[in-house]
Specification:
Elements: H1 2-21, H2 25-40, H3 42-48, H4 55-66, H5 72-83, H6 90-104, E1 107-114, H7 120-134, E2 137-144, E3 152-156, E4 159-162, H8 165-177
Parallel strand pairs: 1-2
Antiparallel strand pairs: 1-3, 3-4
Helix pairs in contact: 1-2, 1-6, 2-6, 4-5
Membrane topology: Peripheral membrane protein
Keywords: ATP synthesis, Cell membrane, CF(1), Hydrogen ion transport, Ion transport, Membrane, Transport
Main location: membrane
Length: 178
């Protein structure tokens, strides 16, 4: 995974800089999302994995599947990826592009995992605390994991805050075993 990220990073940065110069960051993110979904499709992957196909044919087929939803810039980007045999990197490129966009907008994606559904007031309180701690706006997604027993796990990029009962019990068990 780390190797894919290393290979995809220059492509994501190039796409980001091009989109930024053309004031089209949100549109590029949307178009890259479509391209990444097409690249993830099993039928498309099988087609693109055919060694006898020319890179230009692969790029053209890819663009045809996406239809009119891609502008000329993204079509050229996909052609460049095809020439370098990197079409499979599109999902990783999208992820890195999204991270660059979030960084530019000073926005962090945060995942709240709790043992039960959180009410709006609790989510707002957590969002306010996270904004203060992270120093930027947060885009929150919530999910439920009943195995946590209670509490919440917060994931924001590389930061994980485990305030769950299960996490606390695991830490206590580790201390007792040491």
């Amino acid at each position: 995974m780390a190797e894919l990220t290393t290979i995809a990073r220059p492509y994501a940065k190039a796409a980001f800089l091009f989109a930024q110069e053309n004031n089209a960051l949100d549109q590029w993110e949307q178009m890259l999302g479509l391209a990444a979904a097409v690249a993830n499709d099993a039928t498309m992957r099988a087609y693109l994995d055919q060694p006898e196909l020319d890179d230009a044919v692969k790029a053209q087929a890819f663009a045809q599947v996406c239809g009119e939803d891609l502008n000329e810039g993204v079509r050229n980007f996909i052609a460049q990826l095809a020439d370098n045999k990197r079409l499979a990197l599109l999902p990783t490129i999208l992820q890195l592009f999204h991270e660059l966009l979030a960084e530019q907008k000073r926005m962090t994606d945060v995942e709240l995992v709790s043992a039960f559904d959180l009410d709006d007031a609790a989510v707002e309180k957590l969002v306010a605390a996270l904004k203060k701690r992270l120093g930027q706006d947060v885009n929150v997604s919530t999910s439920v994991d009943q195995g946590l027993i209670g509490g919440v796990i917060i994931r924001a990029g590389d930061t994980v805050i485990d305030g769950s009962v299960r996490g606390r019990l695991n830490r206590l068990a580790e201390q007792l075993n040491s």
